[in-house]
Amino acid sequence: MIKGIIFDLDLCVFNTHSIRKTIAEPISAAIRKDNDGSSLDGVTVDKVERELWLMGLEDVIRINNIPKNIADKMRAAYMTLEAPDGSRNYDDVGCIKRLDLVKILVTSGYRNFQLSKIRKTGIESCFDEIIVDAIDDPAAIKGKQKIFAEIADKYGWRNNEVLVVGDSPTSELAAGKALDMITAQILRPGVIKADGFDYYIENLAELDGIIKNYAPNRIN
User: Which of 107, 102, 129 has its CA nearest to residue 117?
Assistant: First the structure.
């Protein structure tokens, strides 16, 4: 029996593509030309700018081996970002309210930016609890695997009673799988399907069927 659901924010609940790309201009400037006169080559810059809309900043920095001086300027620019008016959640987010079990939103990123997405879209009422693992507070960072384990312990759930829903196979879904929780990858536009998870959905409305029909050790 599934007793609780942990949701990711970006590309799961919040439509990052609803944000005008001009919001990232300070970050693009840091990539293209830093104050010391060094820059990345054009191909890498274009790749990095695309990836910033699909994954977290620290993942982009890591997988592209971005030099520290440029990475630090990207981080500083990110800390100033706020979701603009007109930012939107996906149209199926209303389905979350109708799910009759505990619903928790867990997101990692820069605190101000993540909270502004939640505030601007008015999504707070969909969840029983909202947790931001803020990377701009290094002393307090826990990582999603530790947060998920603490959630299960707090509510007295066995790990196989928790459903983790998100887009990223290397973040929330990897954390859920490592804890033997149930995992569902949501295939929003632009998200690439990754092997090894329990369910694959295209719409949050599909969660109701998963909850009602879930049987342990079943892989779909």
Answer: 107
